[in-house]
Amino acid sequence: MLTLPDQPLLDKIALIGGCARLDFGFDAERALSEITALPDSSWGSRAGRVGVHDPAQAIFLRGHAPAQGDLPVEDRDELAQLPYLRELIKEVIPAPALRCVLAQLSAGGIIAPHIDQGEYFSKTIRLHFPITTNENVWMNCAGLSYQMHSGEIWALNNSIGHGVINADASRARLHMICDFLSSAELVEILARADRGLGRPNPAIKARLIEAQHQAQQAGKL
């Protein structure tokens, strides 16, 4: 597991809460046009992500999946073909970027509730960039459900229980997910973020709990 010995542990409850929407967004259509131009061979695998992430295809833009070991965090070949996404990662967010991945959750797919364990996750801030989504996609974090719309940027506290359900049987969900080291500028952005958008959703919570039990029985948690 990748460690960051020179970085402090982060109080993500204080920094983020559960999920928080930043007060600025990005051009999702421009991002999608770049991603659509990637060769088909870029897709079709989980890119080393295992366990509860089985339902999602992935392309790593920076770094590698944790299951692949303590590999260097550097730009991958696909990032050179995605100049706007590279700009988002390297320039728009004022903090050093670490792992970044395109994650496509299949239609009807569920990422069972889990906690990202390990020093790396305790020392980084995870941002979600929703590119394609729909009204039946829910992120559940700390017992509340959130809807992340295309073009928004969200901080996710992945050090507490979180899971995703795409209840739409015909449309996939595509996010860019990036981890950043903390910086004074990013902390200031998080302080302005809207943390009040989560709502109780008993039906979604029940489906995610069922998926969690299934993942435990399958040895994926």
Relevant CATH superfamily: B-lactam Antibiotic, Isopenicillin N Synthase, Chain
Rg value: 16 Å
| Counted beta strands | 10
Alpha-carbon distance between the termini?
A: 17 Å
Beta-strand share of residues: 25-35%
Q: Judging by the overall fold, what is the CATH architecture? A: Sandwich
CATH classification class? Mainly Beta
Mean pLDDT: 95
Q: Largest sheet, described in full? A: 6 strands, antiparallel
Helix-and-strand structural type: alpha+beta
Quaternary state of the chains = single chain
Structurally, the number of domains stands at 1
Q: Percent range for helical residues? A: 10-25%
What would the CATH topology be?
Answer: Jelly Rolls
Protein topology:
Blueprint: H1 12-15, E1 19-21, H2 28-36, E2 56-62, H3 83-92, E3 97-105, E4 110-114, H4 119-122, E5 125-132, E6 137-141, E7 144-146, E8 154-156, E9 162-166, E10 173-180, H5 184-192, H6 202-217
Antiparallel strand pairs: 1-8, 2-3, 3-10, 4-9, 5-8, 5-10, 6-7, 6-9
Based on the model shown, name its key terms.
four-stranded antiparallel sheet; Jelly Rolls; 221 residues; alpha+beta; 6 helices; 25% strand; six-stranded antiparallel sheet; globular
